[in-house]
Fold this protein.
Amino acid sequence: MKFTVDKHEKYVLIKLDENKLNSLISPQLKSELILTNTEGQRNIILDLSNVKYSDSSGLSSLLVGHRICKNAEGSFILTGINENIARLITISQLENILTIVGTVDEAIDLIFMEEIEKELKRELK
C-alpha cells in the first residue's frame, strides 16, 4: 500500500496514494489506522483524493477508522472523496455516520474547533 503520513500535534493526516481501496489495500489501511491510534493519535484525517474506486472492504476500513477514533474521543474525517465513493457511502447509509469534508484544510479546521469545544467542556466540569 502506498501512502504518506503527516503527523501533527492535534492530528495525523494519512494520504492514500492508491487508485483503488479494495480487499488488497483495506487490511493494510486498517492496520495503519489502528497503529496510528495506538501511538496516541485520536484525530485522523484520511485523504482519499487519489482513490477512484472503493468496494465494501474499503468501506469496512473507513468504519474501523471511525470506530477507533470515536472510542478515543477523537475524530475520523474523510476528505477528497469522489462521486463513486460518495455514492457507495450513501447507498450504505453511512453519510450520517462518517464525517466527510471537501478539503484537508476544512478537516484541520474541524479538528481544531472540536478540540477547543472539548477543552471548554473539560474546564466547565
Summary: The mean pLDDT is 94. The helical segments are 26-38, 56-71, 83-91, 104-124.
